[in-house]
Amino acid sequence: MGKLAYEQELTCVVMSENDNVATLLKDIESGEVLRYMVGEVKQELAAKQAIPFGHKIAIKPIQSSEHVVKYGQVIGAASAEITPGEHVHVHNIEGIRGRGDKVR
Question: Can you give the residue ranges of every domain in the chain?
């Protein structure tokens, strides 16, 4: 499969090589294989649960308290350990912007 054909089958978006989450381009089912690119490298990952369109999925292991990075920007900190393929949302991420107690 050529690069263009692969890009047309992408199911999530990663904007930065520093991202540890991808953003879904469609609703996905548990076990569904997601396709995305990090730079020029094609990647695949199976979802561990159903996740709605626009939500995030972990593409790298994220330790508790580690920054969650989307589009190259820190969007919060993990409130629990998150493994690749897991849904990343309010149940396992907390906001840290504007919080003096969370500055590192």
Answer: 3-102
The tokens of 87 are what?
């849904």
Q: Is the dihedral of CA 92, 11, 32, 85 positive or negative?
A: negative
Average pLDDT over residues 7-19: 89
Only one residue has tokens 């292991």, namely 61
CA atoms of 68 and 79, how far apart (whole Å): 10
The whole model's pTM is what? 0.85
CATH of 3-102, one of 3.90.950.10, 2.30.130.110, 2.30.40.10, 2.60.120.1440: 2.30.130.110
The DSSP code sequence of 48-67 is SS-B-TT-EEESS-B-TTPE
Query: Do 13 and 36 touch, CB atoms closer than 8 A?
Result: yes
The amino acid at residue 56 is K
Q: What is the mean pLDDT of residues 40-56?
A: 96
